[in-house]
Amino acid sequence: xxxxxDTAAPLGSARAFADQxxxxxxxxxRTQAIAxxxxxxxxxxxxxxxxxxxxxxxxxxxxxxxxxxxxIDRAIALDAGHAxxxxxxxxxxxxxxxxxxxxSDIDVALARQPDxxxxxxxxxxxxxxxxxxxAALEFCERALRAPDAVSKANALTSQGQALLxxxxxxxALKAFEAALDTSPRLGRARYGLGLAKIRLGDTVxxxxxxxxxxxxxxxxxxxxxxx
Length: 227
Hints:
This protein is mainly α.
């Protein structure tokens, strides 16, 4: 009887902390959300969702990999197929030029959630980077079938990233502009637009777009691989 009482209380606390974290996320209070996710992790160390979410948010606000990557690795250790953790690690490996590792991680994520717009978009970008062939754009085309505006904007942003990887900066610019037409506050698209402008020779306007994206979210450019 005492064993049941001892284990039920921490698990209940973990769920309460997780609910609090989600509430903070809805109001874009990321720092408070991270603290709540960490409290949930302490209360229930066996739940892979908690470190996965904490690590994602730390990355999103621009903390260095040493601060968030251990959380992602912990989530994968708890659940080898954790789609969101694999997605975050795939992007980390991609920007650090570990394209084989990135592809392995994103393929695991897609195996669990094959219709995820973000995962399809990431597979498109990673494939374009590793193969340098336009065939990778098929994954972006699949992502673009998403019905809602935010998902479509993310898919267009991924298409822009993939086109940058293929050296098609003018077409990438159009994709980022289309993404911003659909979702004007999407920081990743604004950052990509800035990169495309810089590669096309407009360094002043490109730098302004990048600065605007980072002013809204410090980690806006975290998914881009720089030459």
